[in-house]
Design goal:
Methylamine Dehydrogenase, Chain H; RCC1-like_dom; 18 strands; RCC1-like domain-containing protein; single chain; globular; 4-stranded antiparallel beta sheet; 2 domains; Ub_ligase/GEF_domain; about 0% helix; repeat; RCC1/BLIP-II
Length: about 260
């Protein structure tokens, strides 16, 4: 695993807080193989081939999930519940998410806007907590924005929780939520993937379309997905305009 750039908080995982302008190897534990990585504002995550999660960098909100608030300049293991196997990870600015092989979502770190989704307003957690999914809901993918979180279910629905001042939850309101709420997708839409920006959200559908919701300033946002390429006055996902020659297959977002 390679990392480069700013390293003030040890987020490169090289054992020193020095910036690097070229890729350098992170200091993984001996024998560990990583399959996914994710980056927050100043912390990093990696998923191993055995379903464990490593974290390093800033830890003021517990976003490393180690049971303390001490930063780390090298990868350390997230303290997952016993027998947990993680299949996917995501990082917000100061919070972290993981999907397990049973379709449950775990979250840890900053919770000032309810982005941990556990139904509390406790400001931070340094250990993974369960996101409060409805009974029977199985999550297959996750994404994180600055202070909001997203999940796609096995049935192609989208869930969101956390900050919502710009309509980034896509539920038609500007109210934050500390539990998952349904994104108000257009009728018949099946979501296959999600991405979270600083204060907006994106989705890819089963037909290869892209949806987007929220905007750059309060009061001028789409808070629910729609089929128009021009943001309407209500806040729901909108379809992104695209050429019929191009089909999105992977996506990510920040600002």
């Amino acid at each position: 695993m390679l990392a480069w750039g700013q390293n003030l908080d040890g987020q490169l995982g090289i054992g020193l807080p020095n910036d690097r302008d070229i890729p350098v190897p992170s200091s993984l534990p001996a024998g560990v193989t990583t399959t996914q990585v994710a980056a927050g504002s100043s912390h990093s995550l990696a998923l191993t081939d055995t379903g464990q999660v490593l974290a390093w960098g800033n830890n003021f909100a517990g976003q490393l999930g180690t049971g303390n608030f001490s930063p780390s300049t090298v990868p350390v293991y997230v303290m997952l519940p016993e027998d947990t196997v993680v299949t996917s990870i995501a990082a917000g600015s100061f919070h972290s998410l993981a999907v397990t092989d049973t379709g449950q979502v775990l979250a840890w770190g900053f919770n000032g806007q309810g982005q941990l989704g556990n139904g509390t307003n406790v400001p931070r957690s340094n250990l993974p907590v369960d996101v409060l999914l409805d009974p029977g809901v199985v999550v297959t993918g996750i994404a994180a924005g600055d202070s909001h979180s997203l999940a796609v279910t096995a049935t192609g629905e989208a869930l969101a929780w956390g900050a919502n001042g710009f309509g980034q939850l896509g539920d038609g309101t500007n109210d934050p939520s500390n539990v998952p709420v349904d994104v108000l997708l257009p009728p018949g839409v099946v979501v296959t993937g999600l991405a979270g920006g600083f204060a907006h959200s994106l989705a890819v559908t089963a037909t290869g379309e892209a949806l987007a919701w929220a905007s750059t300033k309060p009061g001028n946002s789409a808070t629910r997905p729609t089929r128009t390429a021009i943001p309407p006055s209500w806040w729901i996902p909108i379809r992104a305009s695209s050429s019929p020659r191009w089909r999105p297959v992977r996506h990510t977002a920040w600002r």
